């Protein structure tokens, strides 16, 4: 499970809307983006991830995930 944020110079509307509607990306930004807004949304993405998955633990292994399933 990954929170995806896309930064792009390309704005193909159909591709972007399809990705958003399928839930494949969290946010989409085109150039030039606002650094403060981007930073705030990265924080929100972490918060959203933690609310649904718990805090990230870099000591977890794939085996831990298999045993939890």
Please tell me about this protein's structure.
It is a single chain. The protein has helices at 13-21, 35-53, 62-68; strands at residues 5-8, 27-30. It has 69 residues and is mostly helical. It has a two-stranded parallel sheet with strand order 1-2. Strand 1, helix 1 and strand 2 form a beta-alpha-beta unit. The chain is globular, with a radius of gyration of 15 Å.
Feature tags:
69 residues, mainly alpha, two-stranded parallel sheet, globular
Low-pLDDT segments, ≥5 res: none
Give the amount of beta strand, in percent: 5-15%
Number of helices: 3
Helix content: 40-55%
Q: Tell me how many strands there are.
A: 2
Cα(first) to Cα(last) distance is 14 Å
- Sheet bearing the most strands, described? 2 strands, parallel
Order of helices and strands: EHEHH
- Assembly status: single chain
Strand order of the largest sheet: 1-2
Q: Using only CA atoms, what is the Rg? A: 15 Å
Number of domains: 1
Short description:
This protein has 3 helices and 2 strands, in the order E-H-E-H-H. It has 69 residues and is mostly helical. The chain has one domain.
Secondary structure layout:
Elements: E1 5-8, H1 13-21, E2 27-30, H2 35-53, H3 62-68
Parallel strand pairs: 1-2
